[in-house]
Amino acid sequence: MSMAREIYQQIIVDHGRNPRNYGELSAPVCCAEGHNRLCGDSVKVYMRSDKIEINACKFTGEGCAIAIASASLMTEVVHGMHIKDVKALFDDFHGAIVNGENFKYLSPQHERISVFLGVADYPARVKCATLAWQTLLSIINNTNTNRIISTE
């Protein structure tokens, strides 16, 4: 196993065991629930925004180490980001792990979430890694009208 891959695995395990920003966000602008029916992961993402950038983001939920680690790292990465940049980051990330597109390291945020690129080798785990992101995007795109976001 390469040194980089081992470090990436350690980061995922650390965030999975000790998730950052876990808990409800007081007075969120919006929240949404996401569920991965394939393996039972579930997250609820809370976000506060001024419509231009994300001012706060937290999550609650249960799931595998990849789902929890992805939600944890996502909440750290998106804090303070412009909404349009969050969408672009997700598009790059999703394209890389779902469609095998080249992942360009355009920002420090890209580099931080690159720890999940290895998930592309395990198609059943891709939904675990993208669940929190899809849930956050449903808030940003205002598509979470009282329904649970699904990875299906």
Task: Write structural notes for this entry.
This protein is α+β, with helices and mostly antiparallel strands and 152 residues long. The chain is built from five helices and four strands; from the N terminus they run H-E-E-E-H-H-H-H-E. The protein has a four-stranded mixed β-sheet with strand order 3-2-1-4, with helices on one face. Helix 2 (65-78) packs parallel to helix 5. The longest helix is centred in the last third of the chain and has 18 residues, at 123-140. It is globular and about 45 Å long. The model has no long low-confidence stretch (mean pLDDT 90).
Structure keywords:
4 strands, 46% helix, 152 residues
- Rough shape? globular
What share of residues is helical?
40-55%
Biggest β-sheet: count, sense, barrel?
4 strands, mixed
Tell me the β content. Answer: 15-25%
Sheet with most strands: strand arrangement: 3-2-1-4
What is the element string, with H for helices and E for strands?
HEEEHHHHE
**What is the alpha-carbon Rg in Å?**
14 Å
What's the tally of helices?
5
Mean pLDDT: 90
Number of strands: 4
